[in-house]
Amino acid sequence: MLTPLSMFYMQSPSWLSFQKKMEDSKGISNMTTLFGVDKIPTDNLVRKVADTIDPYKLQSVYDDILKLAQVNGILKEFTVMGNYLLVTLDGTYYHSSKTIKCNCCQTRTSKETGEVLYLHSTITPAIVHPALKKVLPLMQEFISNADGDATKSDKHDCEVNAAKRWLEKFQVLTGFKIVIMGDDLYASEPMIKATLAKHHSYIFICKEDSHIVLYEYVNAIKNLGTMDTVTTQETIKKGRGKKAYKSIVTTTYNYVNNVPIKSGEKALNTNWCEIKITNEDGKILYHNCFVTDMEITDKNVIDIASYGRTRWKIENENNNTLKTKGYNLEHNFGHGDKYLSQTLCSLNILTYLFHTIQEFVDEQYIYLRSLAGTRMEFFEELRAVSTYIVFKNFESMLAWMIKSRQTKKNIDLTPYI
Fold first, then answer.
1. Coil, strand or helix at 133
2. How far apart, in whole angstroms, are the C-alpha atoms of residue 374 and residue 327?
3. What is the largest distance, in Å, between two alpha-carbon atoms of the chain?
4. What pLDDT, on a 0 to 100 scale, did the predictor assign at position 145?
5. Which of 106, 141, 199, 217 could form a disulfide with 123 if both were Cys (CB 3.0 to 4.6 A apart)?
6. Tens of pLDDT, residues 179-201
7. Quick check: 179 and 307 in contact, CB under 8 A?
């Protein structure tokens, strides 16, 4: 497992081939010194072994890293309302093929060509915070056809079922409470009940066209003029130089407690709030609505709306990073006969978690990341130096990289190799 992990860590499938050449010529490579692999296996052997390993065996690794994050105070940085952690859920695709398929594959058929695309997808939970750009990815829950029928592709139904399975498995670290967040798909009575059964709170996006009964109550209260409302105004600067000007932005928060999520005498009650941001011309700059189990008041409605808006980080800071910032989550790394695609997906996300934790606790790593610019530029440099020099450990490699940036003189490699 360390071999594919090294590939994801260095964000390069070709890194292994360079290390193999180094191993053949020098008798040792960075696979040994950095990752503890005595002899580099072939690609076929790596895929064969990984195909037999249940990805959920990696759960303990995720758990250990979160414990490390707790010990180092990282989780504390993500808390809101004292000791709550915001955990947002979303489904995303991570493998696709027009020819390779299995009974667990979902399908997407092109309306134009009728061509069928076979897909694998997963729930990608992550701990987020309104004020932090970083997120902490958690162990995923894979989405597949429950009945093994690859002709069915009801992603929505499967995504919610996967979220419920994830809730059953998720273990909360001592001292923290959880707020589960998600898009409108999750704002259903079964998902809410599953969340509350695990003693978690929730904040879900709630759209009017999918919650007709709830909005009948909400709109009736609005029309009566009895809606609870909080309004704030802010003057912001726009434009630059001589074209700079000030604009007044108004944010309106509406809320109501104890409205039914659907029809029926036994329907679950929930609390609803709305945030609407407009400029001085009345143009809507942002609008969204949420449901939550937390009682909403004038004092907390702004915070609850802020937490709800943080849900977007799962798409931008998590899924988008995994797909476009070097991790290439959607790349077809291999399908396999049993677990391969799932195991490689989990290792890829686990690597993202490794990198994120390093950006909090590893001073050498933090310093180099600040100098290198983008994430991709940093890993280009990391791959380059590790392709030609065998370092005695990871710390030595980073120390040499820092030293080489601080001086124009030739550096004696002896202490680092």
1. coil
2. 14
3. 81
4. 67
5. 141
6. 999 999 999 999 999 999 999 99
7. yes
Cα-to-chain-centroid distance, residue 157: 21
| pLDDT (tens digit per residue) in 313-363 | 999 999 999 999 999 999 888 888 889 999 999 999 999 999 999 999 999
Structure token digits, residue 348: 């890829």
DSSP string across 241-266: GGG-EEEEEEEEEEEEEEEESSSSTT
Query: First-to-last CA distance in the chain?
Result: 25
How far is 250 from 99, CA to CA, in rounded Å? 52
Q: 219 is written with which tokens?
A: 């709109």
Residue type, 166: W
d(CA 204, CA 174): 24
Contact 186, 207 (CB under 8 A): no
The four Cα atoms 351, 353, 354, 358 give a dihedral, to 10 degrees, of 140
Rounded distance between C-alpha atoms, residue 23 and residue 382, angstroms: 18
Structure tokens at 365: 């790593």
Secondary structure (3-state) at 333: coil
Please name the amino acid found at residue 51.
D
The neighbour count for residue 42, using CB atoms within 10 Å, is 11
Residue with tokens 């990696």: 58
pLDDT in tens, 142-158: 997 644 343 444 443 47
Instruction: List, in order, residues 6 or more apart from 56 with CB less than 8 Å away.
Output: 139
Residues 6 or more apart whose Cβ sits within 8 Å of residue 294: 201, 203, 271, 300, 304
CB-neighbour burial class of residue 375 (10 A; exposed 0-12, middle 13-18, buried 19+): middle
